[in-house]
Amino acid sequence: MDLSELFKSTLLIGPEIALIITGIIVMVVDPLIKGERKRNLFWIALVGLAVGFILNLERFHNGTSAFSGALSLDGFAAYFNLIFIIGAFLATILSKDYIESMNLRIGEYYALIIFSTSGMMILSSAREFMSLFLGFEIMSVSVYVLSGFNRRSVRSAEAGIKYLVLGGFSSAILLYGIALIYGASGTIFLDEIAANFNASNPLYLAGTALILTGFIFKIGAFPLHQWVPDIYEGAPVTVTGFMSVGVKAAAFAILLRVLFEGFSGIEANWMQALWIVSAFTMTIGNLAAIVQTSIKRMLAYSSIAHAGYALVGVVASYGGKELGLSSVMYYLFAYMVMNLGAFGVLAYLSKDGKECETFDDISGIWRRKPLTAIALGIFMFSLAGIPPTIGFFAKYRVFLSAVKAEFFWLAIIGILNSVISAYYYLRVLVYAYMREESVVFPRFKPTSVVALTILTIGTLLLGILPLNSWDLAIKAAGSFLLTFGAK
Amino acid sequence: MLAWIIFAPLIGALINGLVFASGFWKKVLHGDEHSEKRIVSVVGCGVILISAAISSIMFLKLRALDPAERQIIQELFVWIPSGEFQVSYGFLFDSLSCVMALVVTWVSFLIHIYSIGYMHEDHSYSRYFTYLNIFVFFMLILVLGNSFPLMFVGWEGVGLASYLLIGFWYDDPEKAYAGRKAFIVNRIGDFGFILGIFLIFFVFGSASYGEVFKKALDPGFMSNIPGAVITVIALLLFVGAVGKSAQFPLYVWLPDAMAGPTPVSALIHAATMVTAGVYMVARCNIFYSVSPTAQMIVVGIAAFTAFLAATIALTQNDIKKVLAYSTVSQLGYMFMGVGCGAYIAGMFHLVTHAFFKALLFLGSGSVIHALGGEQDIRKMGGLRKFLPVTSLTFLVGTLAISGIPLLSGFFSKDEILGSLYERGFIIAWIAGLITAVLTAFYMMRLYLLTFEGEARASGEVKQLIHESPSSMTLPLIILAVLSVIGGYMGVPEFMGKVVGIHDSNIFEKFLAASILVEEIKHLEHHALGHWTLVVFSIIAAFLGIGLAFYTYIIKPSIPESVAKNPGISSLYQGSYGKWFVDEIYNVLFVRTFVRLANIAALFDMKIIDGAVNGIAKVIGEAAAILRNAQTGILRFYAALMAIGATAILIYIVLSVK
Amino acid sequence: MESVLFYIFAAASVAGALLVVFHKNPIASALSLVLTLFSTAVLFIFLLAHFVAAIQILVYAGAIMVLFMFTVMFLNIREESLKFDAQNLPVKLGVLLLILFIFGYFASIGFKKSFSLNHAASLPESFGTVEGVGEVLFKDYLLPFELTSVLIVVAILGVVAIAKRGTD
After folding, report:
1. What is each CA distance from B531 to B415, B505, B538, in whole angstroms?
2. Is the ipTM of this complex over 0.85?
3. Which residue of C has its CA nearest to A37?
4. Which residues in chain C are contacts of A112 at CB distance < 8 A?
């Protein structure tokens, strides 16, 4: 790779560079200003994310690759980047009031959110294991720190440590898998691995299994889901919202890319494994969510269950089916909108250093804050997959793709699980609408309301009129298949 | 532009609903009630006027087009882009929907104007106009949508609006019950309708009119489809029509629907919504034309309904109930028309009926308004001198519906009867003729008992009787004029020739483009010629009117003696009791259903609940196990992860042979 | 000769790793880690990766381990707090052994199947030298190299966020 090519490649990764620079600016400006003025960092973060968003749009039109194929800047990556950036943008807006009411450090918070987003973006386009792993770690290390960001809360600190240790463990597994694959094939590029793939070589099989394990951990799926509830519950609620949508989507992006492009040689095998993983993930997530007494923890289990639904779409993409791929992608987008909304409501209702997390904390909001109650209701309906919300259409697409790909049992398990899930989502509404209030709710917070309004409207509008949002996912899935010339 | 016909009423409903009916105006802006009513009236009527004006402009545009290409399509956006099942928001303005749109918007406009006077005292004035605008919005979606799903949206939407308006005075439990009854009975029909739509999609692979009808016209495509399938589609759709357009056996909701405000009865339950079924059959004419079985069933049910409802109408004493049964009976005529393949004749009767039935209902509303809410015709009589405008216009409506020559009802009804005879539906034709006699009789009876003879109202009421305000009489006059001249757009050619008009029956020529299968005019040589048939109709009309005159003016003692005559009294009791259909339904369905529901409840409590509780218990225990696994101890998690990673490794290594 | 040395150092590195986990004295644990890192560096030399081996010793066995020792001494952890948690010890050991056994069993099945490592046809002249590593690092793998710097920035930022006093 000569200099001019390096230069060209650098220009191509504008969105990532924009975010990294924004992160550095936030980080550097933070110590230079004092007190109230630190709040202005919020605007720097938003502008940076907006620039990244705009630069990223270009990739939908002109898919290309950079750094001799290490990064594939295609529509697939662009679609996921859209999820990350919109998610980070809205999470940032939601965080503003929350950080102030929790009295957290402003500068590092925004910088870490942005760095984490840049890591996800690298991850979504990586086709080479070293960049992949570094993107993975940039993303992960940021959220480890963010999980433990509220130092006054013991549980937040505990979540941070737990996530760091367990995350490190999973990274080690992933790295071990990468090493085995490198040992077997002598390369770290996905296309070359696919070309050399030899199913009779146990190194390939063990490597595939270990890499898969690493991703499954980050997705939060069975059998490596145990960390999710503890960490989601302990972390600051806005961080939980951000990582439940961003990190999960990024892990799915890289899971799809590595499995379909690199390990298509034993597609049938990992697909079967994912079938089982998906079925267990849905069931365990939903069953455990039922008995929770904390909404935050309930939403953590629900996020396990949703990872299971999205995995149904992955299984349904068997053989590189556009319908299945696009359904996963659309599902993650929908999940971003509705789950960020649900956590956003919890963040909105937190005040004076105390988080809103139990059912008592939301009971009776219908009487005091009807609009918030309506927003919460819409998000819960959407998570339960009840029309006319985005959650319904997303789930419908996933199950439709499973049926089309003839995974009938998986679709049935998924639908049964959706039925179970309605119970605990609607229980939230019982508390919100039918109980007397037991706590004093915080005052009106204009900034968060902006984000919640956007999310509510998005959940409803895309539920009533999906319009072209599906086309985008289908096109992105098509560009993904094009990248490595799948059948 | 087309879309604005539909969206104007929606905007009106939003303004009236969000600003006024919600209480925003009163509570937040502290506006007074007087100005609220004024603004609501202007907005409510104004948006309908806009719709009506745009429909008229579109009508002119449509006429300017070449007859073969007379349709204007506007695609808004794709609604459900789901694989093969694509539904787009789009509107189709062809001659058929044009006729419907014109009738709906202009009649609605008149009734909106009328409502200003009629509902003036009501406290829920803005809520009323909100609902009315919503109704028009959905009705226009129903007639202008370019696909079956969109028609279904409108179909359900008008059902909702109808439910809201029947139960408008929901404080009265009986009225709220009537609303629910209408809603539930309609559900039965809707179930058939949506099954029909599914079947259409299944067979034709699309649900938009354009594609479905194109394939249905393609002999190559149709040769692969068994005729029975088309018959089933036609009949399923007709089940929907039976519910919405109040045909036997689902007509029972319509008389009860009179619990709503009278303008609502005029608009929804006479002129527009209940004719949706007729429109739908006319729209799907191709399915019916190829299926003689479906035609036979439609005509049979329609003829029976027309006759049955007419017999009930003979003896009712509630002014609105008589009109309600009359509506059911007239809808029967329309279905006879569209059912026998004379789609244009059916549509023609739909239009004229919209004029005179709206007129009659509004007239009855004017009477009820004048008498302070009295609906029993036994307590009326002699109102002509108190309500000159109302009585004159009511008489025009009565004569028109009776089929007196040269009024609108004559032409349309005669065309249907003629078509029935020409197409060989002789029994239906005879039933139609008898029904015509009955119609003339009960309508004249209604007029005579209400406006002629001696005044039977009590003294205090008499003091208060006054002619209605001009906002109510003006629509009456306009509708009366339309009832007189409305028929001249459909004068049959053989009549036109006599008078020397060359371009007669413009209605048929205009609509012909929307009827995809050529109407079969002369099936065979028949014994009776055109004029003979006309004479039969005229005799029927005059016979009915004459009988009514004889019975109620010349010999007023007859009704009582008839009712007491042992031979006839059972018949009288039957008619008066509406043939006890409601009671029969009550025993057959409602009670059986309640009994079944009780059994089901028992089953539910003992077995399902037991099972559910059992499952819940199992789930709870499983969840408890899961919860216990969630110890929160880091090393334990790491160990579980290691086990999980090993399991995945084993699975992958073992599964590869 | 080479294989004998390989087994010696491989065994030393595993033994060091086990000592890190099982030794009660934290300082001894840390020093055992030096043994592991040093033995690994020797394995790098067998692979002709001299530069990497040197870096391994300099950075890990040198700098990072010094840091470790400082921290451990600063914290002044008492020995008993590091005592092995003897509760349910048989169960834990049993699970661990089971995992090891299963893993080993399948690994041995796998390795019985015939396969060959992908030997690079021939190593370039400059393999393992500073120049060679530099070439690869700053040309072919410039992106990962730069990403590493981002990762380090994030890590520093995280440490600051967690460790810094005050919340202003």
Report:
1. 12, 17, 10
2. yes
3. C168
4. 154, 157-158, 161
